[in-house]
Design goal:
The protein is an alpha/beta fold. The chain folds into two domains: about 220 residues, Spore Coat Polysaccharide Biosynthesis Protein SpsA, Chain A, CATH 3.90.550.10; about 100 residues, Hexapeptide repeat proteins (UDP N-Acetylglucosamine Acyltransferase, domain 1). The protein contains seven helices and 29 strands. A hairpin with a 2-residue loop joins strand 2 and strand 3. Helix 5 crosses helix 6. It starts with a strand and ends in a 22-residue tail after the last strand.
Length: about 350
C-alpha cells in the first residue's frame, strides 16, 4: 500500500504568512505541519509516499528530503494543469500509484492518535474506499455525506444545506477502482474535479464505500484560528519525556507544567513560563511571561512582554510591554513598543489579509 499527501495550493486564507512560506511548512509545536502527516503514515506501516507539490516548489523537498529520516521513500509529484481539485491530484499521481491501494492524506490536516486502525479497517473490510468522517459545527465548509441506514448514499461538496452534521475529513483509502470515477466525472460549477463527486460516482456504480467516524482528534487548518487550535492540540499531546530543558534557566525563573527549551536558549531570572510551551534554540527571554499553548521558534528574543496561545516563527524580536494572545508572528518580524520612538503612535506595516487589534 502506498500513500499520497497533498502539499500544494496557495492558502490564500492564511496570507500574509503564506506569501513567504508554504502552508504545509508552517511550524506547529515547532515542527513543520507536513512532518506530522509523514509520521502518521510511517507509523501505520506505509513506506512509499508521494507528495503532491505546486509547480516550481523547492522548499518542501529541502525540508523532507528523501524520507530516510522516517524510514520511508518519498517521491515528489509536481501538479500539472493548474489547481483543478482533489480528484485531479489523483489523476496526476496515477503513474506513481499504479494499481496499488493507497492512503490519500490532505497535508494540512492535524490528526491526534494513530491512523493504523483506519488503514487496517480498509484492508479488513475489503471495501473499494474508506472515508473518515467527523462531526463538525460548520459542515458546509467540507464535503458532507448523506447517510441512510448506516451507509453513505451520496457525498455533496460544500453544500449550502448540509444533509448531515458530518464532514468527510482529509483522510481516505482507495483501491485502483477510484481512477474509473476520476476519469468519469466532470468539473463542478467552480471548475474543479471534486473528490465528493468521485465518492458519489463510486457509490452509484455499485462500489463499496465505507466510513469510520473519528472523534476529537481531527483539525483542518484552513484559517489562522485553526492553526492556533492545531498548535494547542499538538502541544497538549506532547509527552512529558519529550519536554526537555537543554538551555540555561536563571535561578529566579519559574517553569510550570510541560516546557521544552532548546539548546543555547537563555531564560532570564524574571521569567514565568506556564506550559505546555515549546521554545526553540538560541533564544533570549527576559522579564517576560510565556503562557500556555505557545510555540516559539529558533533565534527569538522576547523582552518585557506577555505572550500566550500563540505561534512565533524564527528570528522574531518582541519587546513591547504588552500582552499578546491568539497571534501568529511570522519569521523576522518585530513587535516593539510605541513608547520607544517619536512621534508617539502605532507604526504599522500590514500586508494583505492581515488582522491587527490596537
Amino acid at each position: 500500500m502506498k500513500a499520497l499527501i497533498t502539499a500544494g495550493g496557495r492558502a490564500t486564507r492564511l496570507r500574509p504568512i503564506t506569501w513567504t512560506i508554504n502552508k504545509h511548512l508552517i511550524p506547529l509545536a515547532n515542527k513543520p505541519m507536513l512532518f506530522y502527516a509523514i509520521e502518521k503514515i510511517a507509523e501505520a506501516g506505509i513506506t512509499e509516499i508521494g507528495i503532491n507539490l505546486n509547480p516550481g516548489e523547492e522548499e518542501i523537498q529541502k525540508a523532507c528530503g528523501d524520507g530516510s529520516r522516517w524510514n520511508v521513500k518519498i517521491t515528489y509529484i509536481e501538479q500539472t494543469g493548474g489547481p483543478k481539485g482533489l480528484a485531479h491530484i489523483l489523476k496526476v499521481a496515477q503513474p506513481f500509484l499504479g494499481d496499488d491501494s493507497f492512503l490519500f492524506y490532505l497535508g494540512d490536516n492535524i490528526i491526534l492518535g494513530s491512523i493504523r486502525n483506519f488503514v487496517r479497517k480498509f484492508r479488513d473490510d475489503k471495501v473499494n474506499g474508506l472515508l473518515a468522517l467527523a462531526k463538525v459545527k460548520d459542515p458546509s465548509r467540507f464535503g458532507v455525506p448523506e447517510l441512510r441506514d448506516g451507509k453513505i448514499v451520496r457525498v455533496e461538496e460544500k453544500p449550502s444545506v448540509p444533509k448531515s452534521e458530518y464532514a468527510v475529513t482529509g483522510i481516505y483509502c482507495y483501491d485502483s477502482n477510484v481512477f474509473k470515477a476520476v476519469d468519469a466525472i466532470a468539473p463542478s460549477a467552480r471548475g474543479e474535479y471534486e473528490i465528493s463527486d468521485v465518492h458519489t460516482w463510486l457509490i452509484e456504480h455499485g462500489y463499496a464505500i465505507g466510513y469510520q467516524e473519528i472523534t476529537g482528534w481531527w483539525k483542518d487548518t484552513g484559517k489562522p484560528e485553526d492553526l492556533l487550535e492545531g498548535n494547542q492540540l499538538l502541544l497538549s499531546e506532547m509527552k512529558s519525556e519529550d519536554m526537555t530543558v537543554e538551555g540555561t534557566v536563571a535561578e529566579g525563573a519559574t517553569l510550570h507544567g510541560k516546557v521544552k527549551i532548546g539548546k543555547g536558549t537563555e531564560i532570564g531570572e524574571r521569567v514565568l513560563i506556564r506550559g505546555p510551551v515549546v521554545i526553540g534554540e538560541n533564544c533570549v527571554i527576559r522579564n517576560s511571561y510565556i503562557g500556555p499553548y505557545t510555540s516559539i521558534g529558533d533565534g527569538v528574543e522576547i523582552y518585557n512582554t506577555e505572550i500566550e496561545h500563540s505561534v512565533v516563527f524564527n528570528q522574531v524580536d518582541i519587546n513591547c510591554s504588552k500582552r499578546i494572545v491568539d497571534s501568529m508572528i511570522g519569521e523576522n518580524a518585530s513587535v516593539l513598543s510605541a513608547h520607544e520612538t517619536l512621534p508617539m503612535g502605532h507604526k504599522l506595516i500590514v500586508g494583505d489579509n492581515s488582522m491587527v487589534e490596537l
